[in-house]
Design goal:
Blueprint: E1 2-9, E2 12-19, H1 20-23, E3 64-65, E4 85-89, H2 96-111, E5 115-118, H3 126-139, E6 143-146, H4 151-163, E7 167-171, E8 184-187, H5 190-205, E9 210-216, H6 221-234, E10 240-247, H7 252-265, E11 271-274, H8 277-289, E12 296-301, H9 304-312, E13 318-321, H10 324-339, E14 347-350, E15 354-357, H11 361-365
Parallel strand pairs: 4-5, 4-6, 6-7, 7-8, 8-14, 9-10, 9-11, 11-12, 12-13
Antiparallel strand pairs: 1-2, 3-14, 13-15
Helix pairs in contact: 2-10, 3-4, 5-6, 7-8
Length: about 375
């Protein structure tokens, strides 16, 4: 299985494609020579390696305590930030959303002169990810920023990383009671965020009777929070009636198949909430295939291609934009603060979550440097 490893440090960056077996043997493989900065100071002898970068810290809100058993306390390492190494371990590189988080982590790591590695399976495979966490622990880094689709399975190797003196920070999560202790959890509030999406849909319906369907992800915490949030958002509206709920498997093809079945079995449905933007895009495909131009589709994540651009095209009504790039930057800033005595540890830090529709989406698409991947087209930003 292939993994992607990207390393940034003090002015140079190397991208290396390696195998899971080879990774443990090649933690430093492919290192490039530093790119020397142009020296106009005569014979001062200063080099770019000696100059520590000055970087404005990323701001984030005050945290809320995790459950006691899930809360690890931070220790000031006394180490220069530019000498620290960060490993980012998402569930898989097949998800653009996690790559967008990684782009935020990498940008801040590079600005601080830190060494950065992205290590992940190509396809979602919790067992393979666990092996990679073990490899990173054996190799030794200062901090891990990670997300997992199987918290229970990951907990023992996360605990081993902490025992080895490595900070561990969860990202794209709001789990207050991870099965083992971690230094922080950074993410948006899934339940309250999707309650906002539901409330938006209720307001837009203006009292009209609405039969809705839900495209759920695989069973688990994230699905329960997102679907539950939507249901809470529409709960006070007697005109909103749930007709069906189907597992769309978190991906476009699954969303397409599930929406097709749901709409054919329940033709009264005129609103679909999808627990992520990939499934929402699948629902768009299904609605078009069935000639249903009366369906309003809502999503979650703020994925550039599957969410934001589909809104701009008029295919999706709204989504919860969770700003994954900013989330990644916040997660690394928290990790830096943890290692330098500025963050106590054991807290949930909430990142932004905003409902975005056709009236507001261009404000986001017109800042492509903060998006990953880049939009498929340029947008008029006057």
């Amino acid at each position: 299985m292939g993994i992607l490893r990207t390393t940034s440090r003090r002015g140079y960056k190397v991208a290396i494609g390696v195998t899971a077996v080879a990774f443990a043997l090649s933690a430093c493989a492919g290192a490039a020579e530093p790119v020397a900065s142009e020296d106009n100071s005569g014979d001062s002898g200063a080099t770019s390696e000696e100059a520590a970068p000055t970087v404005e810290a990323i701001s984030y809100p005050a945290g809320t305590p995790l459950e006691a058993a899930a809360a690890a306390q931070c220790v000031d390492t006394g180490k220069a930030v530019s000498d620290m190494e960060i490993a980012y371990l998402p569930p898989a590189t097949e998800f653009n959303y996690y790559l967008a988080i990684g782009a935020g982590v990498e940008a801040l790591a590079e600005a601080n002169g830190m060494e950065y590695s992205l290590v992940a399976p190509a396809k979602d495979n919790p067992a393979e990810q666990i092996g990679m966490i073990q490899d990173i622990t054996t190799r030794g880094v200062d901090m891990i920023v990670m997300s997992t689709h199987d918290p229970g399975a990951a907990a023992p190797v996360v605990a081993a990383a902490l025992d080895a003196g490595i900070q561990v920070h969860l990202v794209n999560s709001d789990i207050p009671d991870f099965p083992t202790s971690v230094h922080s959890v950074v993410g948006y509030s899934q339940r309250s965020g999707d309650a906002k999406v539901g409330a938006y849909a209720v307001e837009l319906a203006a009292g009209a009777e609405v039969y809705y369907g839900i495209l759920e992800g695989a069973p688990g915490y994230h699905n329960d929070e997102r679907s539950g949030g939507w249901r809470e958002g529409v709960a006070g509206a007697s005109n909103f009636i749930e007709a069906a709920s189907v597992n769309g498997g978190w991906n476009v093809d699954g969303g397409n198949a599930a929406a097709m079945d749901m709409l054919q079995a329940n033709p009264e449905i005129t609103v679909i909430f999808a627990a992520n933007d990939y499934m929402a895009q699948g629902a768009v495909q299904a609605a078009k295939a069935l000639g249903r131009d009366d369906i309003l589709i809502y999503g979650n994540d703020g994925d550039v291609n599957s969410g934001l651009e589909e809104i701009a095209a008029g295919n999706i009504q709204a989504t919860l934009d969770t700003s994954p790039y900013a989330m990644g930057q916040i997660a690394l800033q928290v990790a830096i603060d943890c290692a330098t005595g500025e963050f106590a540890g054991g807290e949930f830090i909430e990142s932004p979550g905003t409902v975005v529709d056709g009236d507001s989406v261009l404000q986001i698409l017109c800042e492509p440097d903060k998006l990953f991947p880049a939009p498929n087209q340029e947008y008029s930003c006057n």
